[in-house]
Request: fold
Amino acid sequence: MDCVSNAAQETDTVLYASAAASSGAPYVEEPVAYDAILLSSFGGPEGQGDVIPFLRNVTRGRGIPDERLEEVATHYRHFGGVSPINAQNRELKAAIEAEIARRGLGLPVYWGNRNWHPMLEDTVREAYADGHRTVLALATSAYSSYSSDRQYREDFALALGPVEDGGTGLGLGDDPMTIDKIRLFFDHPGFVEPFFEGVRDAVAAWLAEGRPASEIRILFSTHSIPTGDAERSGPRDRDFGEGGAYAAQHRAVAEHIMKRLVAENPAAEGIDWTLVYQSRSGPASQPWLEPDVNDVIAELPAQGATAVAVVPLGFVSDHMEVLWDLDTEAKESAEEAGLAFVRTQSPGVHPAYVAGLVDLIEERLNGTPAAERPHVTDLGPWFDVSRPGDCENARLGFRPAAAGIAP
Reply:
């Protein structure tokens, strides 16, 4: 990996980037003739026999024995060994293709996963064989963190890198493939709209029952991450406060949703909300973002709450963390606490979300100026080209990553 690693340490180097993105400017404000879209996701098992091999891929390099992996495997086995994420990505891919066709953009959509088939490296080979060289990636993660942003960029760099390092070598040589990445879309209106609708409808139903606003709680839930990684999320030259850019982005979106809720329905004034975390893993000695969603639910009756809506704000679809951690465990916690419970919708293939993703693709095709890009918080629009040091992994440090300035 020496040749890629050395390049990654040079100031202002942008690995495997299109000519327009290789300057390292935060926003690409000139048209780029992308010839394919790469939908990139986490991946998931599709049968009982896939579960442990899949979890080995997820935890590769950590030396976790199969006995410990089996503890997590029970969540998947509860659903027949099948994660819903692959089926959801097939549905999302089809919806994006339909919207691209409706707009006459003429771009094929390829799909490759980090941890299970179709694997990213195989998808890169397929796209290259089909003649595509200037690819725009869409990762199914909206926020800043190592696992939701930089790790995808590392995946792209590894896939395009030297064969001897496990890559395809297709980003090297005289006819290389490049992969850029659309900006993080946490505050794009298309992504936020489904969450707002879910909160609006849950609150309206409870208010119509005569439940006082003071008895309703909204918990915006996202995946917990190690606090060390959270502190390193986002550009290093900006202080985002506790939890880094990761927590700040979630808080900003939640604040927008609640302000809009009250503006459209004044009867919702007085409803309290909290950002909570779920799906923690790792050793107990390692600090992760808190509070846990179940701990917060348990405390709500003492605060006078009688109803709780849990909003899966950190997730783009109803995959395993939503089905198990929210629809199973959080729901059980609410039942034990005697609370009315609603888990609101995730974006999935909501028309606003799908249209928003294709808007983001067109943004890059057209080189839309940053000042004209839609966003609902003061944090956006986020960058096209990640800034130096963005989303470092506290344990691994910096590894070569595409679509951003090194390191």
Remarks:
- The chain has a mean pLDDT of 95.
- DSSP finds twelve helices and eight strands in the chain.
- The longest helix spans residues 244-264.
